[in-house]
Amino acid sequence: MTTHVLLAPDKFKGSLTASAVAAHLAAGLRRALPDVEVDELPVADGGEGTVEAALAAGFTAVELSATGPLGEPVRTRYAVDGTTAVIEMAAVTGLEMVRPDDATARRATSRGLGELVHHALMRGARTVVIGVGGSASTDGGSGMLAALGARLTGPDGELPDGGGALVDLADVDLSGLHPKLASTTIILASDVDNPLLGEHGAAAVYGPQKGADAAAVTDLEHGLTRWVDALARAGATGAREHAAATGAGAAGGVGYACLLIGAERRAGVEVVLDLTGFDRRLDGVDLVITGEGSLDRQSLHGKTPVGVAEAAATHAVPTVAVCGRTTLDADELTGAGIEAVYALTDVEPDVARCIAEAGPLLERLAERIVADRFSARTAVRHAEGAQ
């Protein structure tokens, strides 16, 4: 009887892409169980790696130049399949593109994200998925809307980009917004549940992660408040209500701007699993292997391994996970639907070596999984071969 394994890992941040993780796991599985059938399906949670997951599932790359987080041109890409476009904010205005400090926290813009959405609309997209993890900006999505036709003005005319500039915002004109937005399905792929403003909002919670000091956080909060007020004066439907909505604070307030243009917010991993046809690929599968670099309590709140395990469980397919390290106990893992965890630190206690040699170590973990999960089948095959 042939063993079927579906590999659905996320990236190991700082070490391997999701595709590379899957490839190394596949190599280890095939070495330990030569006739295993392996389906490699790299996935993501809506942040970095979302476009890669779509491309691995058969989408086509669209490459272009767009505005980076600090206004510089960057080469980037998004993925398309028919009239569906998948856009990843981290790939155009991502935090990893800047050196986070007070100045970059104030200047960073979401304009490039809006340019990608505009480009997709002009190519005929009718559904646009926006994955917003890993953003550099705290501009309330003002840069994104500006790229889509909104006009922001201050005391001296057109307002510069960036959350810091919003403290001088006087008026917003939405009459020039792209007309195709009204007939396009926008999906906000995000697990962040923060509102836009306040102590749990975009500036207060995520501003420091983007380099903002206490003064910058205060200014960014002030700017976001002026942004909401200006939009309300401009007649934007639900301007104040959306600011308090779950997920409005995602990506420095890009979540808020997406809600303003009618986006539906969904869990990032759920969106990616739908895009990649995960359910369909579970047919006949004996085991799912998922994973990410660090499997911890944060993983229990919408991260890839738990989302994969939950989806697999609906088809009664067991799931195990690989990771660099884990801090979860047995009860937490069971509650998340993960039957076992295999960590790189189990085979190599030196964390630096785990990061540098993640690929070969993952292959060793795959061999361990075969020994633990399929040893009986392996023994039967050896016996049959000896007859």
From TrEMBL:
<keyword id="KW-0418">Kinase</keyword>
<dbReference type="InterPro" id="IPR018197">
    <property type="entry name" value="Glycerate_kinase_RE-like"/>
</dbReference>
<dbReference type="InterPro" id="IPR018193">
    <property type="entry name" value="Glyc_kinase_flavodox-like_fold"/>
</dbReference>
<dbReference type="GO" id="GO:0008887">
    <property type="term" value="F:glycerate kinase activity"/>
</dbReference>
<comment type="similarity">
    <text>Belongs to the glycerate kinase type-1 family.</text>
</comment>
<keyword id="KW-0808">Transferase</keyword>
<dbReference type="Pfam" id="PF02595">
    <property type="entry name" value="Gly_kinase"/>
</dbReference>
<dbReference type="InterPro" id="IPR036129">
    <property type="entry name" value="Glycerate_kinase_sf"/>
</dbReference>
<dbReference type="GO" id="GO:0031388">
    <property type="term" value="P:organic acid phosphorylation"/>
</dbReference>
<dbReference type="InterPro" id="IPR004381">
    <property type="entry name" value="Glycerate_kinase"/>
</dbReference>
<protein>
    <submittedName>
        <fullName>Glycerate kinase</fullName>
        <ecNumber>2.7.1.-</ecNumber>
    </submittedName>
</protein>
